[in-house]
Amino acid sequence: MADTTNFLAKYSGLRSLGLEQLNEIWGHYDTDGSGYIEVGPELDRFLTDLMKAGGMSATEREVEEFIEGVLEMFDLDQDGRLDFAEVEELLNG
Ligand SMILES: [Ca+2]
Ligand SMILES: [Ca+2]
Which of 34, 42, 59, 87 has the highest Cβ tally under 10 A? Predict the structure, then answer.
């Protein structure tokens, strides 16, 4: 059975996440342990959960647009994937 729980929901009330919480989130979404959240299933899942946790609707099209916007704003080294520091900025910045 697929895990459809929104992992981020429990963090949605927090304004700023500590390192331990960031690590937990990171471990949940960097599923292949590559050290990056890559465009594709990892980023899709992470940003879909993020939108839903923030009370936004998340249709396929909305998620696509959100992904584009996030990469534009938070992929600071422009390598087309998010590293830990970039995710920290996205969640806490
Ligand atoms: Ca990865
Ligand atoms: Ca990057």
Answer: 87
Look at residues 89, 52, 57, 53 and name the one whose alpha carbon lies nearest to residue 73: 89
Please report which ligand is nearest the Cα atom of 74: 2
Nearest to 11 by CA among 44, 30, 23, 59: 23
**Distance of CA 24 from the midpoint of ligand 1 (Å):** 14
Residue 2: pLDDT over 70 = no
**Ligand with an atom nearest the CA of residue 46:** 1
Neighbours of ion ligand 2 (CB under 5 A): 75, 77, 79
Summarize pLDDT for 31-49 with one digit per residue, the tens.
999 999 999 999 999 999 9
What per-residue confidence (pLDDT) applies to 10?
86
